[in-house]
Each structure stands twice: as C-alpha cells, then as structure tokens.
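Morning run. Coffee first, then this:
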Amino acid sequence: MSKLDPFDRAILALMQDDARLKSDAVAEGVGLSPTAVQRRLKRLRTNGVIQAEPLVLSPARVGRPLTAIVSITLARGGSAVVDDMGRQLRAAPEVQQCWYTAGDADFVSVVTARDMANYDAFTRRILMDNALIQKFSTIFALSPVKSGLSLPLD
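And here it is:
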C-alpha cells in the first residue's frame, strides 16, 4: 500500500469527483503549485494508486437500461475452473463488473442489457448449459440508489 499524505488525499478527493480537472484547478484546490500536482499525479499513477481514469456512461442513454446482479455458483471447485469462469465473464461485454466471492456464490456480476430479450440472449450464451456452472440467480435493479467508484480517503 502506498503511503498517502494529506496533499495526496486532497488531490485524489478532487480528482475522484472530476478526473477532467486541470492541474491548475487542482493546485488551487489543494494549495500546491500545478507542477507539484503533476508530479504527485504521475507518482500516484506509477505506484498504481490511480488505476485508470474511465469515462462513466449513462447506461440508459447508451441503450442499456436493464441492470442485473447475477450470482453464479460453480459446479465444482479448483483453480482451473475458477480461472476459466473468470475468463468467460471478463470476455462478455455485457458484464460491467465481476467479483470472485466467498459465501453463497462463487461469482457476483453486474450485467447490463438493452432489454429482457437481450439479457436472455446473454444467459443462453454464457450461463445456461455451461458445464462449469451449477446454478445462477438474477436480481434486477429497479433504480440506482448510489452508483460510483469513489473511495473514502480517510
């Protein structure tokens, strides 16, 4: 884990809210020079603290208003099975997020779809008749209460 000082935390807090901020605006917000902010951002990227600066799209506005949370239980254990299932889920463009988990399910995924027919096509292609899967269950999201990737920096 990288050691974050108060300036790093302040920079990251601003950038989590808007990654498009220019170093001048960040510098003004945290009380450093733009050059110092640029150096710190470069270090935070190099050290892996900043993994990516993705563009966050509105699922509904890009034609994918259906969100499903899918839990998957594998038919058998073993690292090769887990790795294979992970590869399949990573390769599916409908899978927005996915975690290998402990508990009732082996994987939990967030899946987006255009409509129920599109979701059905996903389940038939990836989940049904997949020898690695014992069962899967789906919870459909009605509306977002909170959605984001921001982390507390305390």
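The beta strands are 66-74, 95-100, 107-113, 133-140. Good start to the day.
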